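#struct-help
A.M.: can someone run this one for me? Single chain, 319 residues.
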Amino acid sequence: VTGYTCNSVQCASLQAPTGATVATAATPRTGDVVTANLLAAPGYTCVGTATASCPAANGVATTTGYTCTPNACTGGITAPAGSTAGAVGSITTGSIVTASLTPNAGFSCTGTATALCNAVGANPVTVTGFTCAPIQCTSITAPAGAAVATQVATQTGSVITANLAPLTGFTCTGTATAVCNTAGGAATVTGYTCNANTCNSITAPAGATVATQQATTTGTVVTANLQPSAGFTCTGTATTTCLTAGGAATVSGYVCSSVTCATIAAPTGAIVATQTTATTGTIVTANLAAQAGYTCTGTATALCTTANGVATTTGYTCT
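D.P.: on it. Structure tokens below:
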């Protein structure tokens, strides 16, 4: 046949095959080689010679002879921030790996995790479409040995050391980081440790003496180490507080009261001028007087060892 001419159709644009992108726009005719206009998409490897096929003038050209396949990685998954990846085998680009990811404590994750293998072999895949955010709490729960000095709303990962303070008798160290497991709840704290101070000795409370001296830490029960002073009765459970490591611990929860007697007994060389009830520690000098032929000096302080009994005196001498 002569006199009959066919011309290739020209398209207005080029459509990349699956796994590729158009790197440089083109208006190819059917049969044009457009390999240089294409580029492998992230996570894919492409081979072959791309030849354009234009189905209609000014349409969109497709390609033949150019094939792209997803890369396969065997190095596990690089978990997005806020999550942890489980063990996996070979993963190809485009695989859904949501089930292999777990939110970290204090995080909430959403979306569908799609794998991206940039380099074939023993390399880890990265993940797209899966986002983790720290959970928000409305308050802080202090760790043992500490108190919340300033209450605030916080989220997992926030540093809140400045919001905490050691309890009396404790020393705290470290950086306090919040962990919020339930939205709107109370955040717990990690990285901040409080230890009870240790003292070398015990200071007895008023009205008591230390029967057995020992080193002690804040919070230790030392009731058995104490005893009432003469003229006192003590009740309660004695618990130590050590303000300064290596110092002397004070005692709380152990109260001593002076005993009250019904009458006073005068010391030798004195008489009771005015009888009265008296508790241990009461000054009763005015209630006494020197016997004939005696001179008395000092301050008479009552000592009552038996409730409702007879108080003796100290500090008052008659000669």
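A.M.: thanks! The chain has a mean pLDDT of 96.
D.P.: also worth noting: Residues 175 and 191 are 5 Å apart (CA to CA).
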